[in-house]
Amino acid sequence: MENNTRQILDMLAEGKIQVDEAERLLSLVSTEGEPADSRRSGENNRSSAKYLRVCVEPGEDADEDHAERVNIRVPMALIRAGVKLASLIPRSSADSVNEELRKKGINFDIGSLKAEDLDPLIDALQDLEIDVKDGQHKVRVFVE
Question: Is the domain of 118 the same as that of 101?
Answer without folding.
Answer: yes
